[in-house]
Amino acid sequence: MAALAATALAAMLLPSPLIAQEKAEKPTPASIVQGAPKTDWVAIDPADLLVMTLAPDADGKDREVIIQLMPAPFSKGWVENIQTLAKAHWWDGLSVYRSVDNWVVQWGDGEEEGGTPKPLPTGLNVVPESQYVDETVAAKPEEDVIVLWHPRPELVDAYAESATFNDGWPIGLQIADGTRVLRRWPVHCYGSVGVARDLSPDTGTGAELYAVIGHAPRQLDRNIAVVGRVIMGMQHLSTLPRGTGDAGVYETLAEHTPIVSVRLGNELAEAPRFEYLSTSSDSFAAYAEVSANRDDSFYKVGAGGIDVCNLRVPIRPVKDD
Amino acid sequence: MAALAATALAAMLLPSPLIAQEKAEKPTPASIVQGAPKTDWVAIDPADLLVMTLAPDADGKDREVIIQLMPAPFSKGWVENIQTLAKAHWWDGLSVYRSVDNWVVQWGDGEEEGGTPKPLPTGLNVVPESQYVDETVAAKPEEDVIVLWHPRPELVDAYAESATFNDGWPIGLQIADGTRVLRRWPVHCYGSVGVARDLSPDTGTGAELYAVIGHAPRQLDRNIAVVGRVIMGMQHLSTLPRGTGDAGVYETLAEHTPIVSVRLGNELAEAPRFEYLSTSSDSFAAYAEVSANRDDSFYKVGAGGIDVCNLRVPIRPVKDD
After folding, report:
1. Matching Pfam families, A to Z (chains A, B) (predicted)?
2. Which of B98, B164, B219 to mutate to probe the A interface, most A CBs <10 Å?
């Protein structure tokens, strides 16, 4: 087999003494992430993690999916609903009931009860129609707005006036006069988790969720709420057989993947611990610049740009020293 | 289960009398494709198709993947090599040996012979390092260049100065003076098939191929040759278990997916027949505009733009009248 893109990927994911030696003076995205000081990493609160355990696969292997939930100000009631549903163990015994290639897998109430919807817990929020966050510019000096939300020069966006990262999340921006942010919203990338809904004005409760398993469906931005992203176990969703019914829903219950349990990370005996590379750190700035301008032993032509969904925010398990 | 994005997808993929009625005056990408006249569809020559038959899956179901090969001027010797390899039945008995989530699956010589490379057929081309096509502007009037390769206004590109479609394929452009195309190249999207290679100046023979199974890895453009795209059976590649060895290579031969055969479409008793929506047709122009500005019963906020990999070229089996 050819080393290929195998080589490229090895360079990205694995510490390779050979490659590190070859281009000691040519940083790669991986070398920058590996070299980022511990102080540039931000711990993720286990209360912001959702741990979904699927039934073991055909070989009896465990399947665990970990989702990081969207923080304020974009959480807007949906994430609180998801926490309520998780605490009520509402998803336990339900299923992944839909899978569409290059689109989404979706889970929740797969009509296990023969078409009778499972009752929702009380106290769920009715969520506003839009996931926008509009800036109250007068509330803070304009320079702060620019510093906080300034678009990254490497990012060229087809779906928003510009794009950036806020607190570790990819964000679309509407901008006035080239400088002032008017509106912000989270965007759909590979691995993003969103809230399934019926036709507008329905906005979904958060009980039915999907994960993106293909090219970023950015046309969904601002139309459906993004409430998180898969940070571990993505392969347990992306490799599920595609459904052959209408809209990729499985035709038989036997094809559904049972959900054993969904729990908040802080409810587990051993809370999962992850950290992300601060998107306001110098390390992330260097990572973005090098990612947009690849120049190393494998890449000969740098693109000069990158899209916001291809600049993956580095996330890793916390290792004890 | 919520209709969700199920509804959106149904609207995109299925003829839905309800939705069609609701927005009779609001075209969707699907309604435009469905309404495109037969004359806007271009037949794909079966000689440009590669039919890969994988071993049946665990349930004994057949797995067939059909790949459309890249035409001139971008084929540049690689595609001829692939045709030579297919005619020699070189891939028969080899395997899919690598799968990396949100990256690629890769096939060819998975060292079935215990590390001894399978000999290649004679007569393979040595392929030039770059997949660029530089324009000989003097050869045709400047207005022809503009008409032929003018970027689509809906497409905003992060990786090239602009992007368009040539003969049904997504293409990156380098442009001078805002009008004159200097250089063109095919781009990596979901489902694109490329030529695995070792470190440059190696350019690969075409014997080891990969298909993109995640967000468009556009940083590979101009660095690795794109030689085709999967047009049917993509799920047989995208759902393969991810490899757990270095760079996603499977750790054991038992995990490989055997390739039963790879044949050119015109060598089969029943040649596969497909057609694509002409990317220079009025139908495609309308499809692009509506895709970039969704406004229907599901989508409330149009993005105002789209990226070249999200504007999928419609391809369908030819149906006899």
Report:
1. Pro_isomerase
2. B219
The whole-chain average pLDDT of chain A stands at: 88
Q: How far is CA A256 from CA A62, A91, A212, A236, in A?
A: 16, 14, 18, 13
Cα of A191 to nearest chain B Cα, Å: 9
Could you report the per-residue pLDDT of B263-305, keeping only the tens digit for each? 999 999 999 999 999 999 999 999 999 999 999 889 999 999 9
Say yes or no to pLDDT of B141 above 60.
no
B95 falls within a domain:
yes
The complex's ipTM works out to 0.91
**Residue B92 shares a structural domain with residue B223:** yes
Q: Looking at the structure, do residues B103 and B237 belong to the same domain, yes or no?
A: yes
Q: Give the model's pLDDT for residue A5.
A: 39
Q: Closest partner residue to A101 among B102, B235, B301, by Cβ?
A: B235
Question: What ranges make up the beta strands (E) of B196-256?
Answer: 209-212, 226-232
- CATH number, domain containing residue A272: 2.40.100.10
Is the CB of residue B50 less than 8 Å from the CB of residue B228? Answer: yes
Could you tell me the residue range of the domain that residue B151 belongs to?
A: 133-186
On whether both B104 and B49 belong to a single domain, the answer is yes
In contact, A236 and A220? CB cutoff 8 Å: no
* pLDDT for the residue numbered A138: 41
Count of domains in chain B?
2
Asked whether residue A18 is assigned to any structural domain, the reply reads no
Span A170-183, pLDDT tens digits = 999 988 777 778 88
Would B301 be classed as within a structural domain? no
User: Could you give the 3-state DSSP secondary structure of residue B58?
Assistant: coil
Inter-chain touch A14–B247, beta carbons under 8 Å: yes
- Domain contains B320: no
Nearest residue in A to B59, CA atom: A58
Closest-CA residue of chain A to B292: A219
